[in-house]
Amino acid sequence: MKRILQALALFVLLLSGAHAKESASLGIKGGRDAESGFVGAAAERNVDSYKGSVELSFDENGILVQDAAPQAVQETAPAAGKKETREERKARKEREKLARKQRTDQYTGWVYIPERNFTITNDDIRIEMKGSNGSFGLYAMNEKGSPVPLIVNYESFSSTFVAVRIGRKIYRLNRENGVKSEARRTPYGAQMAYTIPKQAQIVVDFSFLPSIATSSRVDMVRVTIYTINLGKDTQSFATKAVFDTVLGENSFTHFSTAARSRIDTEMQFLTMADEKWIRSESEKAAVQFLLDGKGITRPQYVTLSSKDALSGALWVPQVQDNKSFNSVVSYNNSALGLNWRTAYLDPLKTDVLTFYISVATDGEEPAGHGFLASLEAGKTALAAKLPPLVRTTDVPARPDTVPESALFTAYRENLPVISEDREDFESGPLARKGMTGYGPYDPSSELPGHEYIQNLLDTIAALKNDDDAIDQAEIDRLNAELDQILVRLQQ
């Protein structure tokens, strides 16, 4: 009997030792998780829930920092027999908190942390995100560390916005009812994501980068706009951006380009091949929107007009030569409008648009000219480790003929190829007439493309909906033009 009791005591001792060893391997004291109090398998699940997450942290400027490749977060509890210091425990808790906040966009693949409102600064540039209303702000940081607004910053930057046209309906994303907005921190900057339920998700990404490949000083932003079709059918999507610039309004020159040193009246460009950029500057700072170059999605229309005209009902603004930037409600209020071509997307397909913004302060020149040359030569500082833009882009009406050189970009990021088969407004009827809007229709001219006809229909609809100033003569003229085009199409 004594031997039986001794054997039983030995068995219990061995069993308790094995359990203690298993608990120690999970970071559990006394069989319980030290923090949650969960027992056994529950504690194991608590530890495993952090495995495979991306380890995230913020630097002193509020920028989300992430390793080049996502690293699995190891077991968060200290090793057996090692006591965790207060500082180590605090750091561990912060890592776990960030890992729980982390999200991955299922359409673009970006890793981010959502926040309602935040500001991040990286060397020469500051970005302010207002997730509460979908607005964003841009600043240049001068040598004293003070921010200089690059766009109008009153009313939470609401006069600068991105809009999308889905079919015939237009959504101004920073104020439209029914559009949900979310501000996001990313490892490279910030994003604003907009969701139109059951129709589309639009993500505007701002990624910091230096203009010089051998420099680490950030003086540029790459802007990428993703549009994803969330509907059940193939649909047309067009994107427009309006920047309510402020620097040129108090200086000798409102705008300039690579080919024009001074622009002080309304103007619309159908190509930026010679102009390259739109620049707005004052004595304090300068901002340069780079709109033509390798890897840049060339806009269909680039319009310099008053802020009110660009924010009006017309999808493509009409301009008048030599007209000032004044409007009925504002004086000298100039702005930049960008319209890109329509993309036809199957369900869950994505269209991607890309351009760059360069800034400078204290009398310095923006680095856009040199950066465009670097783009062409494939020598840029933008990290190749950035997530790919998307796996799928827009769906053209018919197959494109793409030169082999277009398949490779400076960033090796699978940037979307811009279709060359759709109506080319740089050489189409409008360009040959030397016009920037709709004029007397010439029956002997070539038939206009579908983009021209769509814009004509949109203009007529917008004029009919303008209760404040219906121009019936203009409506009649445009309807007559449309009738002539339809007759020719029937023939």
Structure description:
- The structure is a single chain.
- With 491 residues, the protein is an alpha+beta fold.
- Helix content is 21%, strand content 27%.
- The strands form five sheets. It has a nine-stranded antiparallel β-sheet. Strands 11, 12, 17, 18, 21, 22 and 23 form a seven-stranded antiparallel β-sheet that branches. Strands 7-8-9-10 form a four-stranded antiparallel β-sheet, with no helix packed on it.
- A hairpin with a 2-residue loop joins β11 and β12.
- The termini are far apart.
Q: Give the N-to-C terminal Cα separation.
A: 112 Å
Percent of residues in beta strands: 25-35%
Mean pLDDT: 74
Global Rg:
28 Å
Number of strand elements: 24
Globally, the shape reads globular
Unreliable runs, pLDDT <50, ≥5 residues? 10-56, 66-75, 390-440
Bin the helical content: 10-25%
* Secondary structure category: alpha+beta
Number of helices: 8
- How can the largest sheet be summarized? 9 strands, antiparallel
Concise structural overview:
With 491 residues, the protein is an alpha+beta fold. The chain has eight helices and 24 strands.
Topology:
Layout: H1 2-25, E1 28-29, E2 32-33, H2 41-48, E3 56-58, E4 64-66, H3 86-101, E5 103-104, E6 111-115, E7 117-122, E8 125-130, E9 135-141, E10 147-149, E11 161-166, E12 169-172, E13 180-186, E14 189-196, E15 200-209, E16 220-229, E17 235-243, E18 267-269, E19 277-281, E20 285-290, E21 301-306, H4 307-310, E22 334-339, E23 343-345, E24 350-361, H5 368-377, H6 429-433, H7 450-465, H8 472-490
Antiparallel strand pairs: 1-2, 3-4, 5-6, 6-13, 7-8, 8-9, 9-10, 11-12, 11-17, 13-14, 14-15, 15-16, 16-24, 17-22, 17-23, 18-21, 19-20, 20-24, 21-22
